[in-house]
Specification:
Blueprint (H helix, E strand, L loop, with lengths): L2 H9 L3 H23 L2 H18 L9 H17 L46 H9 L3 H11 L5 H8 L3 H34 L1
Helix pairs in contact: 1-2, 2-3, 2-4, 2-6, 3-4, 5-8, 6-7, 6-8, 7-8
Length: 203
């Protein structure tokens, strides 16, 4: 039975069908929210509230996106409500992350070296530094973190991320880039010394 049919059963009041949907998505949703919050207790609260709201609103699911994407949107709203109560400083300007001389010319980002060994995308899947990556993500303001994770963990297109967070594609690209640079900057500083040799062996 495909997911659409299971969703229709759940919308008709079949709680067993909803349980099937929960079991199919709970692990991935938990992993996403865990990276989003950086805290296991917050994660448990958000995931639990997400599924409770999904039960209440299952009749509102129209199938315009996947059920997993719909759950992610609910989880984001729950997390936003939580983080709205916590003050976070903004990230530094993009230019602060660029090497000396890279800000010259009409397009300063064109000269930025974003793909060296310190780039977070190249190390995000390395199990031995996963906790360090999560620590770095936890220090990034929520609005940048959510865009980064939707793009690179949920593997949404920029257009899909923009629609999910309610921003223009240009603003979404900027948020993703700023998060990416901030995380790379964090990892670069932490990899110096003890972590540097480990990363050279990984790559």
């Amino acid at each position: 039975m495909n997911e659409i049919e299971i969703v229709k059963r759940a919308q008709a009041g079949d709680f067993g069908a909803f349980t099937e949907l929960v079991n199919a998505h709970k692990d991935k949703l938990y992993a996403f929210v865990r990276k989003l919050t950086g805290d296991p207790e917050d994660t448990n609260d958000i995931v639990q509230d997400t599924f409770l709201k999904a039960i209440d609103k299952i009749d509102q699911f129209r199938g315009e996106s996947s059920f997993g994407t719909w759950l992610t949107s609910i989880a984001l709203n729950q997390a936003r409500g939580m983080f709205a109560k916590r003050k976070q400083t903004d990230l530094r300007p993009l230019e602060d992350y660029l090497p000396a001389g890279a800000t010259n010319g009409p397009n300063p980002l064109a000269n930025a070296s974003l793909f060296d060994w310190r780039d977070p995308l190249s190390v995000l899947e390395a199990a031995e530094i996963n906790e360090l990556v999560e620590e770095g993500l936890a220090g990034i303001p929520f609005k940048y973190r959510e865009a980064f994770l939707l793009r690179y963990v949920e593997e949404m297109s920029v257009k899909e991320v923009a629609a999910t967070i309610g921003q223009s594609e240009a603003a979404t690209k900027s948020r993703i880039l700023r998060a990416r640079l901030a995380l790379r900057d964090f990892l670069s500083r932490r990899f110096e010394g003890n972590y540097g040799e480990k990363m050279r062996r990984v790559h």
